[in-house]
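Continuing from the previous page...

OK, I double-checked the sequence for NAD(P)-dependent dehydrogenase (Short-subunit alcohol dehydrogenase family) against my notes and this is the correct one:
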Amino acid sequence: METFGRLDMAYNNAGIQIPPSDAADEHAERFDRVNAINLRGVWACMKHELRHMRAQGSGAIVNCSSLGGLVGLPGRASYHASKHGVIGLTTSAALEYAPRGIRVNAVCPGTIDTPMVSDMIAKGELDRAEAEANPPINRLGTADEIAQAVLWLCSPGAGFVVGVALPVDGGYVAR
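Thanks. Re-ran it with the corrected sequence; updated structure tokens here:
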């Protein structure tokens, strides 16, 4: 705001993964930590972005959910709850702010070749071959592919797109 005097677009990408755990055995502290970052982090960013966009009467926000915001998987209840929450936050804000000229959407990445995923593979929390075989495209996604989806959602080309949770997952949820 200090440099440009306005905020036209924002991407809220807050997320950590925790080791898989049986839902009945998950520690409350781990549940709270993953939700504090993945859900509250996105909420905190969006809250301040919306204030600026509301004053100027325009803007586009894209929140990062996850494939885990669209489906459930055993051992991932806490993480998936946080990412489902991001979608709920996104759709509610989208309905509230669309009449004010502000579009809010979410991207839902599948397994993306990032340092977080590499760390999960190294710790044995994720099998790379299985992760590559899960989506019909038979590979991990790239950060650039997510960036392109975010840029499109922020662009005038997506001017009529409001409140979507866009899977960018190599076809995983299409199966």
